[in-house]
């Protein structure tokens, strides 16, 4: 009992007598132990051990005594004594598998630097022993010889023979892992891949990649592509799933720049893939607020990127233009993207991209009001200006340059843009494209001769309605920038729409109006249409040809190419444009067939009739401007109806077409 606390403890137990049993000296256990040698004390010397082996009594040497031999560096007076000792020791080892495993295991520890000493005479004589042994023992010996000589490629080759990866060979041979030389052994797989150059070696190399650490994997990938080693399908498939920019947990940004270039060549990649990754990052839900981007902008941006992905294999140099106020450049830096970009101090706050596409450079505004596509010739001047060391590059600056073509982003823009690229600039999509990415089912089937299928007339009519607002906003901005040469003609695009929709009645008329306005593209298209029309008289065709030569003289790219193709000499011939287009501006058929109206119910055009509200204060509220024009030109409205048309037009945005029609209605009322 403790006097201080009053707590009572149990008394300590006193050990009882041990329970060891006496064993009979002639029993089974005694007989089993009797034949086993007991280590000598003091331990046997090397000379005593060699003597026992010579006498055939190596069984008397205990494992502890053998371990003592293997853990010291024994030196002999002469080479003959060393050779004699090595012969005797290997002779004993050859008779005892366990002893052999012990000797080779300790030797491996020594070669890896984890054991200070090992008999030098045994290491030197490994080559002599190798021809005398076979099986796993021979494989272990080959491992030790290669490790001793630091021939790591031989270790990798042995791993290939054993059908294991180099890093796992020591485990397969039941030898200690060579952590000291692991990296060199793993990289030896590159030489094996080069030596065998077949699909079997490629499959084995993929296993090496999968079982390597990330730094080792990157070194192996760098080695394969820098040394231009053979890449058979298994390895190519693995590289595609692991190293391309679009791969999950990709190593694209870990490998060197030279290797990325090699991957681009191997998989026919372009800078467009890196651009796609940046756009995916830009459209990611978690970055919406950071980039101040709306859901509608994300939808349009994805649509635009998908369209240009159909041309990805032809994309060369690529550069993003990012406004300083945009957070995109910060996001790109934090994600270590390899895409080239410049930060612009421009007033324009919309991101844009420039990229080479065959013989042209595409300028694509990614978002914003009345965004557009521009094409420039891919000449050295433009290439240096856009992709060289130009810190002043900006969206406004690019917009102020003369270009070959401008295209909108209005409904169905993909159909008309593809046609423009194919017909005017001889730019077709990636080979083997069958379905155009970014288009709804039924509109994306692609034919390299005819392009995309013609969209439904309803969609074409919708495009015609939306285009006017885009062109008005676009041309307003161009005038603000001082760009008079780049103003786009709404009439030219209207001509293309009407031609596609089959409205032959009016497509040449709107083109003729654009010719009088001085639009180069309209003049070229109009002349081309006249020259190719078999019903046109010779004198009009001659005037059209002169207009083409005049356009070529002024440097209009399509006219220049056509003159070169058909051997026309560009010159500034005076062409009477008014005389050339007068025939197409006359509309006798409309004037002759006008119908006198008493009520709105007598209008026969179903598309207009369905939208009229005859018993309301605003019967024409549902009509678009093109339908107003048709109503005014094809029907004879009474004065009250004309006044209602005039009142309705006064409520509309006062663009050029609305003002023109209002003036015509006012004149009619007079």
UniProtKB/TrEMBL annotation:
A UniProt-annotated Pfam family = EH_Signature
Looking at the record, the residues that make up the Zorya protein ZorC EH domain are 248-419
Give the highest taxon in the source lineage.
Bacteria
| Record-given protein name | Zorya protein ZorC EH domain-containing protein
Which organism was this protein described from? Alteromonas hispanica
């Amino acid at each position: 009992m403790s006097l201080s606390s009053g707590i009572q403890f149990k008394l300590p137990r006193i050990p009882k007598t041990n329970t060891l049993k006496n064993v009979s000296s002639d029993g089974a256990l005694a007989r089993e132990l009797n034949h086993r040698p007991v280590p000598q004390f003091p331990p046997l010397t090397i000379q005593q051990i060699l003597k026992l082996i010579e006498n055939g009594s190596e069984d008397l040497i205990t494992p502890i005594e053998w371990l003592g031999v293997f853990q010291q560096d024994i030196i002999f007076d002469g080479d003959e004594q060393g050779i004699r000792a090595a012969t005797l020791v290997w002779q004993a080892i050859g008779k005892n598998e366990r002893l052999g495993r012990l000797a080779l295991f300790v030797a491996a520890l020594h070669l890896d630097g984890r054991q200070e000493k090992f008999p030098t005479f045994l290491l030197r004589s490994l080559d002599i022993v190798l021809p005398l042994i076979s099986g796993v023992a021979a494989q272990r010996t080959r491992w030790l010889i290669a490790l001793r000589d630091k021939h790591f490629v031989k270790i990798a080759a042995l791993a290939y023979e054993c059908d294991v990866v180099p890093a796992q060979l020591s485990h397969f041979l039941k030898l200690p892992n060579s952590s000291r030389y692991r990296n060199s052994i793993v990289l030896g797989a590159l030489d094996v891949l080069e030596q065998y150059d077949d699909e079997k070696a490629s499959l084995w190399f993929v296993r090496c990649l999968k079982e390597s650490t990330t730094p080792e994997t990157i070194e192996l990938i760098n080695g394969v592509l820098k040394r231009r080693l053979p890449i058979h399908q298994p390895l190519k498939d693995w590289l595609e799933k692991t190293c391309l920019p679009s791969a999950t947990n990709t190593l694209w940004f870990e490998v060197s720049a030279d290797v990325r270039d090699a991957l681009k060549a191997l998989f026919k990649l372009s800078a467009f893939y890196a651009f796609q990754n940046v756009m995916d990052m830009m459209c990611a839900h978690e970055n919406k607020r950071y980039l101040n981007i709306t859901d509608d902008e994300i939808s349009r941006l994805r649509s635009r990127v998908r369209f240009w992905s159909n041309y990805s294999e032809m994309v060369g140099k690529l550069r993003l233009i990012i406004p300083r106020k945009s957070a995109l450049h910060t996001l790109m830096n934090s994600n270590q993207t390899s895409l080239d970009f410049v930060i612009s101090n421009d007033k324009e706050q919309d991101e844009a991209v420039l990229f080479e596409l065959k013989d042209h450079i595409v300028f694509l505004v990614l978002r914003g009001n009345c965004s557009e596509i521009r094409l420039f010739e891919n000449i050295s001047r433009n290439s240096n200006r856009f992709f060289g060391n130009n810190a002043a590059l900006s969206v406004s600056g690019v917009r102020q340059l003369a270009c070959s073509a401008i295209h909108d982003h209005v409904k169905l823009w993909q159909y008309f843009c593809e046609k423009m690229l194919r017909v005017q600039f001889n730019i077709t999509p990636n080979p083997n494209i069958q379905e155009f990415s970014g288009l709804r089912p039924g509109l994306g089937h692609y034919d390299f001769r005819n392009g995309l299928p013609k969209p439904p007339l309803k969609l074409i009519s919708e495009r015609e309605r939306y285009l006017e607002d885009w062109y008005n906003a676009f041309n307003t901005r161009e005038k603000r920038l001082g760009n008079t040469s780049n103003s786009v003609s709404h009439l030219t695009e209207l001509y293309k729409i009407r031609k596609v929709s089959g409205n032959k009645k009016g497509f040449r008329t709107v083109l003729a109006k654009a010719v009088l306005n001085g639009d180069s593209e309209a003049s070229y298209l109009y002349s081309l249409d006249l020259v190719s029309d078999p019903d046109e008289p010779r004198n009009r065709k001659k005037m059209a040809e002169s207009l083409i030569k005049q356009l070529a003289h002024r440097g209009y790219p399509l006219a220049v190419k056509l003159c070169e193709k058909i051997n026309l000499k560009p010159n500034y011939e005076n062409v009477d444009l008014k005389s050339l287009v007068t025939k197409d501006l006359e509309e006798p058929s409309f004037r002759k067939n006008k119908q006198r109206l008493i009520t709105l119910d007598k209008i026969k055009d179903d598309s207009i009739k369905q939208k009229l509200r005859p018993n309301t204060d605003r019967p024409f509220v549902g009509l678009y401007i093109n339908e107003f024009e048709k109503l005014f030109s094809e029907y004879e409205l009474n004065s009250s109806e004309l006044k209602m048309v005039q009142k309705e037009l006064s409520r509309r945005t006062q663009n050029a077409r609305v003002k023109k029609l209002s003036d015509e209605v006012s004149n009619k009322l007079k």
